[in-house]
Amino acid sequence: MATTGLQLLGLSLCVIGWVGAIATCALPMWRVTAFIGNNIVVAQTIWEGLWMNCIVQSTGQIQCKVYDSMLALPRDLQAARALTIISALIAMLALMIGIVGAKCTKCIEDSPLKSRVSLISGSLFCAAGFLYLIPVCWTANSIIKDFYNPLVPAPRKRELGPALYFGWGTAALLFLGGALLVSGARPASGPNFDSASRHSSPTRNAPTLPAERVKGYV
């Protein structure tokens, strides 16, 4: 029962992390306008995401535009797109495998096979969390380097957007859920080993007859 609870908790965390990964990928708030100097009140705020950029006016009006050409985008942005999509697909595959291998389902009757399937699901979730962590940390490092670079003009400097914090939380949920699935993948201990040892013990402890007596029987 304890392992079943771990699997259910791990699957729940992974589902939340998977939904968060999709939402974070679609959010345009990866990079936001930086407030530098005394210019705190500005007429507009710029949001930059993986798929679009938005301009928020001081009146509250938001105008968003999808990037026109994918090939014209920077390489780091293209890599971030690819890694987030691959991570979400791996998490979806791991979720389907985890449902099949869960001990509360009856898709597979063999208990050792269920444990292996659950172990594969947890490993895939951990891999998805690691892949999602790469573009988030990469983007954050780029923003921080440009912010403290004196050669970058002030209007082009950005700050860490809320989507990056959601991305870190999403990766943590995928990691934690995958670890719980791996922990709950232990097969239930049965009496097979005991019975095998009982059957094998008489043969080991059987008395050995002398060679002369054996020849006499022959």
Mind explaining what this structure looks like?
The chain has 218 residues and is an alpha+beta fold. 61% of the residues lie in helices and 10% in strands. The chain has six helices and five strands. Strands 4-3-2-1-5 form a five-stranded antiparallel beta sheet. A hairpin with a 3-residue loop joins strand 2 (44-48) and strand 3 (52-57). The longest helix is centred in the middle third of the chain and has 37 residues, at 111-147. The radius of gyration is 29 Å and the shape is elongated. The relative contact order is 0.18. Its main location: other. InterPro entries: Claudin, Claudin2, Claudin_CS, PMP22/EMP/MP20/Claudin. It holds the Pfam family PMP22_Claudin. Residues 191-218 are annotated as: Disordered. Claudins function as major constituents of the tight junction complexes that regulate the permeability of epithelia.
Q: Specify the overall morphology.
A: elongated
Number of strands: 5
| Mean model confidence by pLDDT | 80
Largest sheet: 5 strands, antiparallel
Estimated share of beta-strand residues: 5-15%
Strand order of the largest sheet: 4-3-2-1-5
Rg over CA atoms: 29 Å
What percent of residues adopt helix (DSSP H or I)? Answer: 55-70%
Question: What is the multimeric organization of the chains shown?
Answer: single chain
Residue runs with pLDDT of under 50 for 5 or more positions: 189-206, 213-218
- The first-to-last residue Cα distance is 58 Å
Report the total helices. 6
Give the helices and strands as they follow along the chain.
HEEEEHHEHHH
Structure classification: alpha+beta
Family: Belongs to the claudin family.
Biased composition (Polar residues): 192-206
Organism: Polyodon spathula (North American paddlefish)
Region (Disordered): 191-218
